Amino acid sequence: MKAQNSRAYLMKQRDEYIRQYGEDLGAFHFLMMLLKTQGAKAHRRGDVQTLRLLANDLHGVYLKHTQQ
């Protein structure tokens, strides 16, 4: 039940970002919010591996959207 409520909350936030900023920018803002949240949790736990994975994912997004 908790996982289902969490998912519903995240989908509500995603929809709010999309409504506020438009489809592309809203999805990007939502992604940044997720990365920031997960990064903060990993940092508090001292989980360096997760931080590296998040940094790698963020770099992948950057490369995808800056390729000419």
Verbal overview:
It is a single chain. With 68 residues, this protein is an all-alpha fold. The chain has helices spanning 2-21, 23-45, 48-66. Helix 1 (2-21) crosses helix 2 (23-45) and helix 2 packs antiparallel against helix 3. The mean pLDDT is 89.
Q: Tell me the total number of β-strands.
A: 0
Give the uncertain stretches in residue-range form. Answer: none
Mean pLDDT figure: 89
Helix share, percent: over 70%
Q: So how many helices? A: 3
Question: Looking at the structure, what is the overall shape?
Answer: flat
H/E series, N to C? HHH
Radius of gyration over C-alpha positions, nearest whole angstrom? 14 Å
Biggest β-sheet strands, sense, barrel: none
Strand content: under 5%
CA-to-CA gap between the ends? 44 Å
Structural class: mainly alpha
